[in-house]
Design a protein that fits this description.
The chain is an alpha/beta fold. It folds into three domains: about 1-205, Up-down Bundle (Growth Hormone, Chain: A); about 220-485, Growth Hormone, Chain: A; about 520-795, Rossmann fold, CATH 3.40.50.150. The protein is built from 33 helices and 14 strands. The strands form three sheets. An eight-stranded mixed β-sheet has the order 7-6-5-8-9-11-10-13, with helices on both faces. A four-stranded antiparallel β-sheet has the order 1-2-3-4. A two-stranded parallel ribbon has the order 12-14. The protein is elongated and about 100 Å long. The chain starts with a helix and ends in a 6-residue tail after the last helix. The relative contact order is 0.08.
Length: about 850
């Protein structure tokens, strides 16, 4: 029963890791520092637990299965307390922020790390002790420690694969975090109880397997253990660096959705599990020299790692060919993501999966399997912590994805060389051959290193492939990427790859994040400018402004056209600052404006703990299906943001109309409405985007007040860039508001932090045509468009002039169905005739 129980432990552990990361990110932020702190604490607990078990478990006086059962029950008990502890700790962090800790980056970081440690370190320490404890029983299955413990490790890792798939594709989307955690705790407790029941001393004594291997001389054993521990730590270090690099490289082709990351984690774990299972089987049959095999495995891992630097650049074409040839369903695309992740990750991770069993086998007979396994596993885990931190904070920002992979391949080759030179004793010829192979791999990795195709890799194939005529296929897509397109700025930042390019013939400067276009100087100009003006224009006297998301800086630049006192910008990715400076010609060099301060922080973290309040908040993150931005579209986030608005303040929220069906758009709108009594919804970019405005006071378009505010020179000249010259133009962009919002959101499924309703659904809608259905839903499908809008206007023209003016503007905005419906509902025949003339002429404002 040990293997199936430990398989279940692996599944439970991975679900815990994913749920805890989601919960802690909401409080501690989605910055690279916060995420790394959570990951380092999780893995640090595993390492500490391994060392604890190595030193103490043999003295516990419990049969291995009973000790394992007790550990699992302890994990379940503590895991059930974490949500309560988190709720109690959040106010304490707020007090620390307000006491001035936020002004000291290192101090506040240490406070966060201490809080995270209190929350999850006890549970992860218990997790880390489970494998060493079970290693004592594993000796009964086989004369080989590497074979028996390797089988345990493989079973646990295969369980982790199942946990990843269940949490991302089933449990979290259908049950939410709280119920998923509850079920996981229950399963965890059942595993613990089962192990305790099966682990009586009588059952342990009745085992018929061979006795544990005898101990060897202690000095020699300690020396080999130290050497192997260093090798194993280096292997773990390299594995985490390449995992970080692969994740960043794959995100450029697969996107940044929760499913894409789940596919990557699944592929990584599946490779490790498969390699460990294969190694355990081979070792158990005594078919290899373990030292030679370890050197060869590390060399093959190096070859596969270096090869992925080339494979990653092949993936966009593979993605495109699959799109054009097979047109997979939404669920089919999830399978495609897993397959492409396996193509990149499986060969190298399969080779790395051999390392742990081979390390144990080289160690040979031991006095205590628990101590040997615990120390080896702890060394590897400490190495993975160093690799995760080095990959995220040093290798990727300094070297980029491709060179990080090549450099790590050289490190793996060096480890293989050390193993061949130091540990191969029985077969000198095989050792020399392994050393030559390792050296050749190191040289070949450097000589054959690829050059990174910036334009192709940052083209966002997962989004933009749908813009290409299927008849043109991949050649058409490649021509689109390579024609009239030049790189201006590229930086692999701490959380994302940021790229700025220019299309000279269009005079269009554009910015992408992990390949997805998030800003441009022409095509997205209206959205960026209007997002900066609308909330301020509807506030009577805005002085203090907060803007979430820097991007091109154009929204910040537009807000700065108003006579405000202070603008605080919150941006999670430091590399975005360099990108925004590329847009200085269109954002007025706003980063040098003395009124502007920049906070490199997660927006939720900023709003939750910073007690400052604002007249206007503008939230303009990326799409809600992207993992870092998804929690900025939930009811919980809007509730937090409401607390940072002063009485009468205005909150502006961007959201897209594409790749989001009416059901999910209604969900976000309902979440917004739950926090703001008064809501207006404006369309920008000819139906591509929406700007939602919310406030605790009634929001109306006062034409006289708007005309006065819009006549201020800097405001007027900036708005004229997008042909907005008066309140009538803003009225033409208004979709709905007031009481009509309740009609639209009635019965909508809430989008919350717990259920991630939109985050899990939106990635499946990337190729859905949704703009027209969303406009119909907002406008009311055939009713008179002026019915919901008229109550929202103050000091506007009379009904006839207002209707005619709106028809003109709707025609200009290419909203002909709305213009036609407004004409049909007009009671004035003369006005209908005049409006029909306008409609027939398709009059457009010159560009």
């Amino acid at each position: 029963m040990i293997l199936p129980l430990f398989f279940g432990s692996g599944a439970v552990g991975l679900v815990y890791q994913i749920v805890w990361l989601r919960e802690l990110t909401l409080v501690f932020g989605a910055t690279a520092y916060a995420s790394s702190a959570v990951l380092a604490t999780f893995m640090g607990g595993l390492a500490l637990g391994s060392l604890w078990a190595a030193r103490r478990a043999d003295a516990w006086g419990l049969a291995p299965l009973r000790a394992y059962g007790a550990l699992e029950l302890g994990i379940a008990g503590y895991a059930s307390l974490i949500p309560l502890l988190l709720s109690r700790m959040t106010p304490l962090l707020g007090l620390a922020w307000r006491a001035g800790a936020s002004e000291h980056f290192v101090l506040f970081g240490l406070l966060k790390l201490a809080a995270i440690a209190v929350l999850i370190l006890p549970a992860t320490t218990l997790m880390g002790a489970t494998l060493p404890v079970l290693a004592r029983s594993a000796g009964r299955w086989s004369k080989s420690l590497g074979g028996s413990v390797g089988a345990l490790y493989a079973a646990n890792t295969f369980g982790a694969v199942l946990g990843t798939l269940l949490s991302a594709f089933a449990l979290l989307p259908t049950l939410g975090m709280r119920r998923t955690l509850g079920i996981t705790v229950s399963v965890n407790a059942a595993i613990g109880l089962a192990a305790w029941a099966l682990g009586s001393r009588a059952l342990e004594r009745s085992g018929t397997g061979p006795a544990p291997p005898r101990a060897v001389e202690e000095p020699r054993q300690r020396s080999r253990l130290r050497t192997l521990a260093l090798i194993f730590a280096g292997s773990g270090f390299a594995a985490m660096v390449i995992e970080v690099a692969w994740t960043r490289g794959l995100a450029l082709t697969l996107g940044s959705s929760v499913y894409a990351y789940a596919a990557m984690l699944t592929a990584f774990l599946l490779g490790l599990a498969g390699g460990a299972a294969a190694a355990a089987r081979v070792i158990a049959r005594r078919r290899v020299n373990p030292a030679v095999a370890l050197s060869v495995a590390l060399s093959l891992a190096a070859v596969a790692t270096a090869a992925t630097a080339h494979v990653l650049q092949w993936l966009p074409r593979a993605f495109g060919e699959i799109y054009f040839r097979f047109k997979p369903s939404p669920d089919g695309w999830l399978l495609v993501e897993v397959v492409l992740a396996l193509v990149v990750m499986f060969p190298a991770t399969f080779a790395l999966g051999w390392v742990f069993p081979l390390v144990l086998e080289i160690l040979g007979p031991v006095r205590s399997a628990t101590a040997a396994v615990g120390r080896a596993y702890a060394a590897n885990t400490f190495g993975t912590i160093g690799g995760a931190l080095t990959g995220g904070f040093v290798a990727i920002p300094l070297l980029g994805v491709s060179d990080s992979l090549v450099t790590t391949a050289v490190v793996q080759g060096l480890l293989a060389l050390v193993v061949a030179a130091v540990l191969v004793e029985a077969s000198p010829k095989a050792g020399r051959a392994a050393a030559v192979l390792a050296a050749a791999v190191m040289v070949a990795s450097v000589v054959a290193r690829p050059s990174w195709d910036l334009l192709l890799m940052n083209s966002g194939v997962y989004m933009k492939i749908q813009d290409i005529d299927p008849k043109d296929g991949w050649k058409g897509y490649l021509a689109r990427v390579k024609t009239d397109n030049q790189a201006v700025y590229a930086k692999d930042g701490l959380t994302a790859s940021v790229f700025v390019g220019i299309q000279p013939s269009l005079d269009n400067l554009y910015l992408t994040v992990n390949g997805k276009t998030d800003a441009s100087s022409r095509l997205d100009t209206e959205t960026q400018i209007v997002a900066g003006h609308l909330p301020l224009l509807l506030h009577p006297d805005p002085k203090d402004i907060l803007i979430v998301g820097l991007a091109s800086g154009m929204t910040v630049g537009s807000a700065a056209r108003h006579p405000v006192d202070r603008i605080r910008v919150v941006e999670v990715e430091p590399a975005m600052v360099g990108a925004a400076r590329c847009f200085s010609s269109v954002n007025y060099g706003v980063l040098d404006d003395p009124r502007v301060t920049l906070s490199l922080n997660d927006a939720r973290n900023e709003l939750q703990f910073n007690s400052a309040t604002y007249d206007v908040i503008v939230s303009e993150p990326s799409n809600p299906w992207m993992t870092v931005a998804s929690n900025l579209f939930t009811e919980d986030f809007f509730r937090i943001a409401r607390t940072r608005l002063r009485p009468g303040g205005v909150f502006g929220q961007w959201i897209q109309m594409y790749c989001l069906t009416p059901e999910y758009l209604r969900s976000v709108l309902a979440a917004f409405r739950a926090s703001f009594p008064s809501v207006l919804v404006f369309e920008t970019g000819n139906g591509v985007d929406l700007i939602m405005l919310g406030s605790d006071r009634p929001l109306r378009l006062d034409f006289d007040a708007l005309r006065t505010r819009m006549s201020e020179f800097q405001v007027m000249t900036d708005l004229s860039r997008v042909r907005i010259r008066g309140p009538e133009d803003l009225a033409g962009m208004l979709q709905t508001g007031g009481d009509d919002i309740d009609r639209i959101t009635a019965g909508a499924h809430p989008n919350t932090d717990d259920n991630g309703y939109v985050e899990f659904a939106a990635p499946k809608l990337l190729y859905a045509e949704t703009i027209d259905p969303n406009l119909a839903m907002l406008q009311g499908n055939g009713r008179d468009p002026l019915t919901p809008l008229r109550p929202l206007f103050v000091n506007s023209p009379d009904d006839g002039d207002l209707r005619l003016g709106l028809v003109v503007r709707w025609v200009r905005r290419d909203d002909r169905p709305r213009a036609k419906t407004a004409i049909e509902h007009s009671p004035d025949p003369a006005l209908r005739d005049r409006a029909n003339e306008i409609l027939a002429a398709r009059r457009q404002t010159p560009p």
